[in-house]
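Quick one, T. Sequence first:
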Amino acid sequence: MTGRITGRTRIIAHLGVPTESFRAPMIYNPWFEAAGVDVVVVPMGCEAADFPVFLAHVARLRNFAGALITMPHKVMAAALVDTAAPAVLACGACNAVRQGADGGLVGDMFDGAGFVRGMERRGHAAKGARALVVGAGGVGSAIAASLAQAGAAALGLHDVDTARAEALADRLRRQFPGTEVSTGSNDPAGWPVVVNATPLGMGPRDPLPVATDRIAPGTFVGEVVLADDTPLLAAARARGCPTQAGTEMLFEQIPAYLDFFGLPSTDADTLRRLARLSG
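Structure tokens:
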């Protein structure tokens, strides 16, 4: 992208509501401009009732490069694609759509890929890992699926909604039989990787998602709350644990999206340097 939109510009539709909270355009578009890629991410405030019809029509545009799917459409998108990646089948949600070679819609899920990429870039292999994931909602499901897809040996799942955790465990066992999956406990003791995939940490008075005095020094502790620091991460560092903030997961997943859309890719550091999040 050259800083202006022309008749040749392709669009990535960013579908969800409310659009006021979207950060993706302020990360993708500066990268496209710097790299000379004639693509632009456009926020589109599509209501849930309109989403099935709107997605089908926007994907038929001649200059459609793909779609980013965010709340509240991720679960519905999983049911609308013609071809779903293993992560979509495992977590029951989809946050990226493109056209396949046959014109059908292909869907994938990258919320978890960002977490795994960041973890591995910090020297912690997902293959063979044993990880506790607290929270079995959309992002927790995606992280668990990405860890399993990367070859995690064992996953522990905990959610206040036990039925949701059990349903996720069943899907993971079907899609990734090589990964041992258990449910029920949020005790971090004995888990070399601990992930908070709940909203706990967004508010200053929130309880901690796990008992931090049960986290062993050296445990890799990751967070999905979109902040550079949280009480969980501060407590983990105090115990000698390496950590990963939720904002890092956001930047780490974008190269995976770019690969999925068949666009020139980059790394999280470059994206962070170019981003205009205050705009």
